[in-house]
Write a structure and sequence with these properties.
two-stranded antiparallel ribbon, mainly alpha, two-stranded antiparallel sheet, 258 residues
Length: 258
């Protein structure tokens, strides 16, 4: 599973009632960001001062991520981080729901609301699979890791925190301490420290080394997303205002429409 798959599973809040999606209006940008992070960690792209640079166009293992990589390479001029995320297609969340349905990780029903947008009603979720993802996040959130954190789990933690998915991952009063810990983890200074200790290229390459040229520090990733979410909600508009609402994303596949 990709970081995006894990993120969507955590966004499905499980409780006494039917599972519900937490912060679905923020998911598009968070999922799009997870794809960039995956490609960055694979050494396929780098974040330059003004644009995303394709370092290696060779296909990766995941077909969807290969499609994203091809899309980045075809975009002229090369997009900036913010431009790429602002162009997140409205169908992106639906595509990830379809991925998880294909993996038998959840079942959902779609309906078109009065606003013309597709809404997702989760019917069931693979609780064991979700619990396994949450267990990896727990290593970062509930205790001080004895070993450097996995870079992918660090990115997942940043996205869960910034996209306001934490209440679904750690609900209610019992989850309050974990939510506070996650908020601290996703702050710029602590995230950068953890990433550097991990030797994460998103956080600086070798342990103790300065940030590697061309890569976006994980702490900066959090700050950039906070700024982007703020930008698209100014003026009293909803989060999706001014974001591209048409077409399929560059996934290398087809199937469902939004």
């Amino acid at each position: 599973m990709t970081i995006g798959d894990d993120l969507l599973l955590l966004a499905v809040g499980t409780g006494r009632r039917r599972p519900r999606i937490r912060s679905e209006h923020r998911l598009r940008i968070a999922l799009r960001t997870s794809e960039l992070a995956e490609l960055c960690l694979a050494g396929r792209i780098a974040f330059g001062p003004r644009r995303i640079e394709v370092l290696d166009p060779a296909p990766v293992e995941d077909r969807r991520l290969t499609g994203v990589l091809l899309g980045l390479g075809r975009t002229v001029p090369p997009p900036s981080f913010h431009d790429w995320l602002r162009r997140s297609p409205s169908s992106l969340t639906t595509e990830y729901f379809s991925r998880l349905e294909d993996q038998k990780a959840l079942r959902c029903r779609r309906r078109r609301g009065a606003d013309g947008r597709t809404h997702h009603e989760v019917l069931s979720v693979d609780v064991a699979r979700r619990r396994a993802v949450l267990g990896r996040l727990d290593v970062l959130v509930r205790s001080a890791p004895q070993a450097p954190p996995d870079p992918r789990d660090l990115v997942l933690a940043v996205l869960v925190g910034v996209a306001d998915i934490a209440p679904a991952a750690y609900p209610g009063i019992r989850g309050a301490a974990a939510r506070r810990r996650l908020a601290a983890l996703t702050s710029s200074e602590s995230t950068l420290l953890a990433a550097t200790q991990a030797g994460d290229p998103l956080g600086g390459g070798r342990a103790g080394a300065p940030p590697a040229p061309g890569f976006l520090p994980a702490g900066q990733l959090a700050n950039e997303l906070v700024g982007l979410y703020s930008d698209v909600t100014t003026g009293g508009h909803g989060l999706a205002h001014s974001l591209d609402s048409g077409g399929w994303s560059d996934s290398g596949g087809g199937g469902h429409s939004d």
